[in-house]
């Protein structure tokens, strides 16, 4: 099995995630799309660690998973806070910082 | 056999990812995310990263998706996103364009550098002698606790900060204290 297939699959997954981040308006949905992007990165790390014959890529992927868990915790609590204050999680309604 | 596993896992991943970005109902999107994460765990096993596959299933599919489902439950399940209305003109169209252009760029980069990454490495688990089933875990542990022990400690600080921040943010402020 070649590394290229994994890189192309990770690229497709990354682009689907980017589409989700831009197109979805629900805050929770945007966080899910960010998870897709992080998983694409993990796939790349594992593929290259396989290619290198070294385990460093897997170590980095482990750290990426830890950071993703922290990010989801903080992000979802922010979404809850926004919902508690505004009664909506639609990102288009949060326009106070519009220039 | 390897190709068969790869094709099946790829189908799972792509279908799940499209479900995450296209399904209207948040719960359906979260379940599609589970499908994607399981497909990625299958690919991890195929790449001899067994420990990471276990971590992927336990942490992502077990903890993070459950967290998503809890928040969806707290916000009310009936909030189906209306995919028709577009307050920003052409936002969805622009998002699709950005996605396709990015895919083209990444594909071009992979195609350009294809000859340097096309070969399969000698494999990781074969570095430890014999077919030791714990080879991957042992290698990973010696890497984390020797080379990257500093990053490991910093990660613990990050997790503590994240937990404290989450509790602080989602705490309902009592009336007595400011």
Automatic annotation (TrEMBL), chain A:
UniProt topology in membrane: Multi-pass membrane protein
Keyword terms, alphabetized: Membrane, Transmembrane, Transmembrane helix, Transport
A Pfam family reported for this protein in Swiss-Prot or TrEMBL: Oxidored_q2
Key word Transmembrane helix present: yes
GO biological process: ATP synthesis coupled electron transport
GO cellular component, one term: NADH dehydrogenase complex
Annotated InterPro entries: NADH_UbQ_OxRdtase_chain4L/K, NUOK/Mnh_C1-like
Family classification: Belongs to the complex I subunit 4L family.
Alphabetical list of PANTHER family matching this protein: NADH-UBIQUINONE OXIDOREDUCTASE CHAIN 4L (PTHR11434:SF16), NADH-UBIQUINONE OXIDOREDUCTASE SUBUNIT ND4L (PTHR11434)
Stated name of the protein: Unannotated protein
Organism of origin: freshwater metagenome
């Amino acid at each position: 099995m070649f590394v290229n297939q994994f890189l192309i699959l990770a690229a497709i997954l990354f682009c689907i995630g980017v589409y989700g981040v831009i197109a979805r308006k629900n805050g929770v949905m945007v966080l899910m799309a960010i998870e897709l992007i992080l998983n694409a990165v993990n796939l790349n790390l594992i593929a290259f660690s396989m290619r290198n014959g070294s385990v460093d890529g897997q170590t980095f992927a482990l750290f990426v998973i830890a950071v993703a868990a922290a990010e989801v915790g903080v992000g979802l609590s922010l979404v809850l806070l926004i919902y508690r204050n505004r009664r909506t999680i639609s990102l288009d309604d949060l326009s106070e910082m519009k220039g | 056999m390897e190709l068969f596993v790869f094709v099946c896992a790829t189908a799972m991943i792509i279908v799940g990812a499209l479900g995450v970005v296209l399904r209207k109902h948040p719960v359906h999107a979260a379940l599609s995310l589970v499908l994607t994460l399981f497909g990625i765990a299958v690919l991890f096993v195929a790449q001899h990263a067994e420990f990471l596959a276990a971590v992927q299933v336990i942490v992502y599919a077990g903890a993070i998706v459950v967290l998503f489902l809890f928040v969806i439950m707290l916000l009310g399940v009936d909030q189906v996103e209306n995919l028709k209305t577009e307050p920003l003109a052409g936002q969805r169209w622009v998002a699709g364009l950005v996605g396709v252009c990015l895919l083209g760029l990444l594909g071009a980069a992979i195609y350009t550098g294809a000859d340097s990454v096309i070969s399969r490495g000698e494999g990781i688990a074969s570095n430890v002698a014999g077919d030791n089933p714990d080879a991957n875990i042992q290698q990973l542990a010696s890497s984390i606790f020797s080379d990257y022990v500093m990053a490991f400690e910093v990660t613990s600080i990050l997790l503590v900060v994240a937990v404290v921040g989450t509790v602080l943010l989602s705490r309902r402020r009592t009336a007595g204290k400011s």
